[in-house]
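Sample 1 of the test manifest.
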Amino acid sequence: MADSSTQAQQTAQVLQEELEKNAKRFQAVVDGFVVDASDPAIGSTPKDVVWKRGKSQLFRYHPQTAKTHPVPYLIVPWLGISRTHVLDLLPGNSYIESLLKQGYDVYLLDWGEIAEEDKNLGFEDAVFKILPRIIDRALEISQAQELTLNGICVGGTIAAAYLALEPHAPVRNFVAMVAPIDFDEGGMFKSWLDERYFPVDMIVDRFGGIPASLMAAGFKMLRPTGDIQAKSSLWLNLDRPGAITSFKAMNRWASNYIAMPGRFFSQLTKDLYFNNRMIKGQFMLGGRKVDLSQISCPLLVIAARQDFIVPPLAAKGLMDAVSSEDKEYVELPGGHISVFSGRQAHRTLWPKIDEWVSARAE
Amino acid sequence: MTGQEASANPFEFWKDMAQKWSEGIGQSNFGGGPFAAGSPFTAPSMFNPFQQFQQFQNANPFQASNQAYNPAQVWMQLCQQSMKIWSEFGAQAGAGGPTEDTFRAAERQWMQQLEQAAEALSQSMATEACSSMIGKFIEQGLAWQEKFAAEVNPQIDAAHRALNLPSRDQMDRMFERVIGIEERLDDLDDARQALKRLEQRLDEIEQLGREVLNKVSVTRSNPRRRTRTGPAEAEAEPQVS
């Protein structure tokens, strides 16, 4: 009798503690989402626009150290899909801020808010018109001879195509981060973008590209449980300082999709996802063949272990395709975005990039 | 429920939905507008989602791909698995009364289960059957939209004209021209920059030429220097032909 009474008391105590814990969580949710419903400012690291063409802009971030590396660092992100704010999410959780604190002279290309009028923007514009100009501009401003080119996601695919076509470009190092190259290993998107079923021409004719709403639907479908996982994770981590701010910042970025230009989407789908032409050396741009073996500069390929947008094998394909002697492949924990923007990036990606690039800066 | 029945049920549901939707559109009458009875939009020969749905079923992509796509079964398995896990968990927790660890374990269990559900859904969707379904749905959506646009756009354009507003096509053309002008300006700017760089280069060459001439004139005005410095240093002097 005494045993059952003690057990009942213990049970009541545990239940009370659990209720208190959940009440605190609930209070935190009310405070964070109802009392202060505003979103935190994202992408707030100070920067200047140093070049502009159409909607594309080149940002130069204000240095945060007295001395900067002699080789500037140029980031070429994905074209369309979403904004680049995730690269500079919040103070203390920003890839760009980490580079600045490590003394890099950081430039970021922003492709702008793509809409129907940009339907003719394709790989050619990116490779022949935009990349050469922003590289020239960055070198001119930094008074440098060469720079480090960091392509992220399809920005890495664009950068690889550029380097393959311009092997003597003033690029000291190439960092390809979660960049799809071997599209046969393209995961779920490879499966969905099936030549027999996917009506790419119909979509491009109708919308002039992939509209933001369709882009959002595609990415949400990739991970149907993603939203509930994110919210569950927030609930369990509410006692962590800054959890709500990080969630709101990431949520704000993740719900802001932008369109992809028709020509670019058509090339990405038909040439790359349908036929995997880049890795086969059959991808043609402006009448020239994109031959990845022409890339000979030092190369760092970064893949994310839990990336279901660009699975590691899709990124790793670049390693065998180039002729660079100095090349390294790194597979880090995290997903497509969290690999460079998650909490673990402080310990994994950011130090790795600094170590690799600074060893090749002189 | 067999696998065949399970896969048929969602189709029945979708078919009913499509039929109701189609009937709803057909019955709608916006003041004798495009949806009025007898309008080409509602005529059987024109777009009919139900008819298209039947065509879609007849050309069943799941059969064509020889894969049994069975969304109901996927969900059923997930629910069964979930119920089994939670009932086992409840039995364990109930045996000795809940502790704090019980709740933390439940949280971990929940997260793992979500991950498992995500994995199961991913496997279910990474199939040819799912790809063909997505393709068909997009095609149907676009076909419907196109018919709708063909029917509605002339009326919107008429309204714009009445209000003296530009049509969508006119706006598109204007934006294209603006982009064209912007590109030309950018090209001109690039050309200007290239000329500026060329000018700077020419200035540098001119400066270099001046320096060479100065050295030559110094050498000529001081011929003894050549004899004094000796033949080796004299050879190092710049030669101008």
